[in-house]
Design goal:
Largest sheet: 8 strands, mixed
Oligomer: single chain
Distance between the termini: 29 Å
Structural class: alpha/beta
Strand content: 15-25%
Strand order of the largest sheet: 12-22-21-14-15-16-17-13
Radius of gyration: 34 Å
Number of helices: 34
Helix content: 40-55%
Low-confidence stretches: none
Bound molecules: phosphoenolpyruvate, magnesium ion
Number of strands: 31
Length: 886
């Protein structure tokens, strides 16, 4: 087993073994860039060390000794030498970049003797003692874990207010040594080999340090990678005039502009840039002060880009006029820059269009589609919940939907805060800039509705305790009263105190170019879930090729509609019910017509009514309160007229309460909803079918290309679908006969219950299409309530019990398996059965990849996730092409 690889190794470069930084150094050296000589200790050595509970493999130290001997011979310096000492840096570097998460020791090899040698050799004892003091400080902190503040305080006292010099650094070094020895019960070793072994072990240990472990959890990085360690000859950016250190990006990481971008600090070591003690200068200043070095940096930057075929983030040091490269890696960039760089690298013939598309991570598009919160460390996070609908927005807190509307009408920006939302709050959600709920998960009512509207929303915010009576909420950080400003970041799930800066999104030509390419490569069609003509038009602008789910019940909201709906629910008999429905039909037809028009030329899937009827009635608690108040007033009423009015109203409300109680269910999510409603009240299905087909015929008359697809929700039994689809078809024929014209249409079903997935083969005998409702399918397969799981699921993820929220990203093994079974059985009966998905997973990149793999025809997502789904679909097509080529 080889543990150590010199930078000039002939071995193939393997990032998994050498880590990102080590691989970069080897590659740069191989390509002839000026890299200080060194060697890399492999990630396997770290893993062996960790497995042996902190004991390095014996041969490691022999191989390190060989590495040092070879550095001595290349540089002509001696490790621990009394005249020309070899000094080293020891840095961590895993295969995946984890910036700042692990440790580094610089200036290693300095001791009481070599410091004098360095002073003599450079003629600069200030520099030599500064370097030694820094080494002792870092060694104490990293190897012996002495709290950095104690060490910094000792240095500050030794330096006093004067500029540090050799004398004060000598005092500082002596104090540091004392503190470290006191803390560790052993001195900082004078022997450079011992220094090196301890530093390497400390870097290995930092792989399992708290910071690194937390970072890996958050970014989903495996613990099994380990870190490599690069040991490199020191070059000193702090060796006086003509020296310095800096960081450069080969293109602007914010805008993507093709212009070197970065900062530079003269006469300094890398850690000074990080510590922010002095403000770095822009590279333009370096261009005037060190034109030759700047020009070299520009040349190298261009060569590095062509070599790596991507924008690079470079660390460099200038030692007395000589430029050295210390690191190169693919540079982090904003979403806008990522798109511009990808498109321009194609224009410059560096990468192909396929590569350009693969260079942009689909989720990053969110930054372009929603305002981004630019919070600083001073901004107070009041609470954190589940990031349910992305984007940032600020407003004054209100707790009531009507009040949200009133204030919005006065031109105020509001944030609606509720325990949870229901259809009754819909108007308030429309009026609000953002919505926060203390309960619920990412497919709860608030989350689904907010996402559909592209509004910022945080749900399941358990840290917030709402007191509706007092019109305030408490969090561990503050008490917020109605009218106070807050900012909601639906991208991260944070709720901030006050108005935090947000930056508006912009879509430019580069975006359109890249998305055009993505559309050419993808095989999955992408539709949108939209319930209004405005949302449908927006979805189309964002590239939707039809509506995959129009949740009809969202059209029953609004004062006149809710009233008609209530009348229908309260109707004492079928005739009265039919009357109420007749009022609703034209209103629904108008909505459908608007959607067909916005989606001219594309299919529109309209789902029949889904939620339980009691949701359209007033709140039970509020109704009881109102009855109680009226009864109190009745006791005091004196005039006969007042008594009669009050009695009339009480009577009315008691009937409503009775109906609420009769319709209320212990578990409405598993109760009388979906097609079960249409079966109990066929007149609702009939009214909806009538509205759909009337609108379709009227639109077709106007020259609009319509293709309605009527979808039956929550089917468990084949017979449910047979009965509902027959009713839809009969109604279609009636409407066509009445209007003397017809349109093509299809009747299909949602597959959103495990039983439906299992009997899909039989359902497919009658259905013309399937659409998987993976929200309900997840709820019913995993046995997790969509509305309550938000309370404990984040804990599952934190404890590592599950990797991701199954309501956000499809649970491939469980729910995914049922979807696969449904597809397989459905297509066995009807090979050309059109199949899509319309649960929230339709806009999640990893789920989109899964749906491609199992052969779905389309995914449907909320309008603002349509671009993400388009790009994700292109990624999976391109990736499966490459894997089938291989
Ligand atoms: C689903 O269950 O996945 C679905 C799309 O329907 P809804 O979210 O309206 O229940
Ligand atoms: Mg559903």
């Amino acid at each position: 087993m080889t543990w150590v690889y010199p930078f000039n190794t002939d071995e193939p470069v393997d990032r998994d073994i050498l880590g990102g930084k080590g691989a970069g150094l080897v590659e740069m050296r191989r390509a002839g860039f000026p890299v200080p000589p060194g060697f890399v200790i492999s990630t396997s050595a770290c893993l062996a060390y960790t497995a042996a509970h902190g004991v390095a493999p014996e041969e490691l130290w022999d191989e390190v000794a060989v590495g040092i001997a070879s550095l001595e011979s290349v540089t002509g310096k001696t490790f621990g030498g009394a005249t020309d000492p070899l000094l080293l840096s020891v840095r961590s570097g895993a295969a995946v970049s984890m910036p700042g998460m692990m440790d580094t020791v610089l200036n290693l090899g300095l001791n009481d003797t070599t410091v004098e040698a360095l002073a003599k050799q450079t003629g600069d004892s200030d520099f030599a003692w500064q370097s030694y003091r820094r080494f002792v400080h870092m060694f104490g902190e990293i190897v012996f874990r002495v709290p950095s503040e104690r060490l910094s305080a000792a240095v500050a006292t030794a330096h006093g207010s004067a500029e540090p010099d050799a004398a004060s650094d000598q005092v500082a070094t002596a104090r540091l040594k004392m503190i470290i020895e006191g803390h560790a019960s052993r001195p900082v070793p004078q022997d450079p080999v011992e220094q090196l072994h301890l530093a390497i072990a400390a870097v290995f240990d930092s792989w399992d340090g708290r910071r690194a472990v937390d970072y890996r959890r958050v970014h989903g990085i495996s613990d099994a990678l380990g870190t490599a360690v690069s040991v490199q000859t020191m070059v000193f950016g702090n060796s006086g005039k003509g020296s310095g250190t800096g960081v450069a990006f080969t293109r602007d990481p914010g805008t993507g502009e093709r212009k070197m971008y970065g900062e530079y600090l003269d006469n300094a070591q890398g850690e000074d840039v990080v510590a922010g003690i002095r403000t770095p200068l822009s590279l333009d200043v370096m261009a005037t002060e060190m034109p030759d070095v700047h020009q070299q940096l520009l040349d190298i930057s261009g060569r590095l880009e062509s070599h790596y075929r991507d924008m690079q983030d470079i660390e460099f040091t200038v030692e007395r006029g000589k430029l050295w490269m210390l690191q190169t890696r693919s540079g982090k960039r904003s979403a806008r820059a990522a798109i511009r760089i990808a498109v321009e690298l194609f224009d410059e013939k560096i990468i192909s269009r396929e590569e350009a598309v693969l260079r942009v991570t689909p989720d990053r598009l969110e930054e372009l589609l929603h305002p981004v919160v630019h919070a600083s460390t001073d901004d107070v996070v009041l609470a954190r919940g589940l990031a349910a609908s992305p984007g940032g927005a600020s407003g004054v807190v209100v707790f009531d939907a009507d009040e949200a509307v009133e204030l919005a009408e006065e031109g105020k920006k509001v944030v609606l805060v509720r325990h949870e939302t229901s259809p009754d709050d819909f108007h308030g959600m429309v009026a609000a800039q953002a919505i926060v709920t203390t309960r619920g998960g990412v497919t709860s009512h608030a989350a689904v509705v907010a996402r559909g509207m592209g509004k910022s929303c945080v749900v399941g915010c358990e840290d917030i305790e709402v007191d509706y009576a007092e019109q305030l909420f408490h969090t561990p950080k503050a008490e917020i009263t109605k009218g106070d400003w807050v900012t909601v970041d639906g991208t991260t799930g944070a709720v901030y105190l006050g108005e935090v800066e947000t930056v508006s999104p912009e879509l430019d030509d580069n975006y359109s170019t890249l998305m055009g390419w993505a559309d050419e490569f993808r095989e999955l069609a992408v539709r949108a879930n939209a319930d209004t003509p405005v949302d449908a038009a927006r979805a189309r602008e964002l590239g939707a090729e039809g509506i995959g789910l129009c949740r009809s019940e969202h059209m029953f909201f609004g004062d006149d509609r809710t009233a008609a709906m209530r009348e229908m629910i309260m109707a004492p008999n079928a005739i009265a019910r039919a009357d109420a429905l007749t009022q609703l039909a034209p209103l629904q037809a108008k909505d459908y017509a608007g959607i067909f028009e916005a989606m001219d030329g594309f299919p529109v899937t309209v789902r029949l009514l889904d939620p339980p009827l009691h949701e359209f009635l007033p709140d039970r608690h509020e109704t009881i309160m109102e009855i109680t108040n009226l009864k109190l007033r009745l006791r005091k009423a004196s005039s006969l007229e007042a008594i009669n009015t009050l009695l009339g109203r009480i009577n009315e409300l008691e009937t409503v309460l009775d109906r609420i109680e009769r319709l209320s269910e212990a578990n409405p999510m598993l109760g009388h909803r979906g097609c079960r409603l249409g079966i109990a009240y066929p007149e609702i299905t009939e009214m909806q079918a009538r509205a759909i087909f009337t609108a379709a015929v009227q639109c077709a008359d106007k020259g609009i290309a319509v293709f309605p697809e009527v979808m039956v929700p929550l089917v468990a039994f084949e017979s449910e679908f047979v009965s509902q689809s027959a009713l839809v078809r009969e109604t279609a024929e009636k409407v066509f006969a009445e209007l003397g014209a017809s349109v093509d249409y299809a009747v299909g079903t949602m597959i959103e219950l495990p039983r439906a997935a299992l009997v899909a083969g039989r359902i497919a005998e009658h259905a013309e299409f399937f659409s998987f409702g993976t929200n309900d399918l997840t709820q019913s397969t995993v046995g997790l309530s969509r509305d309550d799981a938000g309370r404990f699921l984040p804990g599952y993820i934190r404890r590592g019990l599950i990797d991701a929220d199954p309501f956000r990203s499809i649970d491939r093994e469980g729910v995914g398996e049922l979807v696969s079974i449904g597809v397989e059985r459905g297509r066995k009966t009807k090979p050309d059965l059109k199949i899509g998905v319309c649960g929230e997973h339709g806009g999640d990149p990893s789920s989109v990849a899964f749906f491609h793999e199992i052969g779905l025809d389309y995914v449907s997502s909320s309008p603002f996730r349509v671009p993400i789904a388009r790009l994700a679909a292109a990624h999976v097509s391109l990736q499966s092409r490459t894997s089938s080529d291989a």
